[in-house]
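chain below, 279 aa
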Amino acid sequence: MKVCFDSCSMAINHTNDTKMFGVFYSNKNEVDFSIHVHECCEIFLCLSGGKSFLIDDRIYEVSDGDLFVINQFETHKITFEPGKVFSRCVLKVHPTFIYSCSTDKTDLSACFYKRGPQISNKISLSREDLMRLEGLLSQLRIENEYADDVIKNMITTRILVLVNQLFAKNSQSKGMNYIESNVVQKTIAYINNNFDGDLSLKTLAKNAFISENQLCRLFKKELGITVSKYIASKRISQAKRLLKSGHSVSATAIKCGYNDYASFIRAFKKIVGVSPGKY
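prediction:
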């Protein structure tokens, strides 16, 4: 059963198509610099060369051996250190598989969805924990002659158990930073509270009491992306939550600030990879 892929997008597509999991290894300094969300949960292990990780409104410094857990609603974007080898292993796991492995007594989705104000996406690993996790991940590369699918399902379940154990011990706010600029913080708060309203650059700048050019410069400096791309990613992330909770596509489009139904379809498909109806 093939679960290891040469690109992150291939691992995501396989995970979404099978409702199972896929893994991506890379030592290349190639990464999607756009902020994005996807339909599966993510276990991201940085082995070397990471710099910073933006997840929703939090920025994390990345060190070798850091582990990050991200759900399908959290927008994120990572950067790497120039001149260094950016080595990472990324395991994509579909929520359907996670819930199928959980029981009434053991919720293996906790590490992805238990995200309060003091709960971090980042887990700093000890040398021993890093070796245990790397050992399990490496076993997903092996093609077994007999019961390959059963073995890989078991290994992925063991990874979920281990990550949840590490999350329970080490997920408190250590290593978590919020946006330094008060202006950017205020703008993000305004965006998050007004998905269905006017989020034009003029309105945001007026709310922050600065010029549009100043707001653009601060946003780019703090988050590494433009205001418009951040708004689009957050609106689509909110749309995913609403669709999951049973809202219709048309109602979701309006609640997320898309008065033009066709524009919502295009934006959703561009970021998520499928239409909202299919989602």
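The two ends are 25 Å apart (CA to CA). The first strand starts at residue 4 and ends at 5.
thats it, cya
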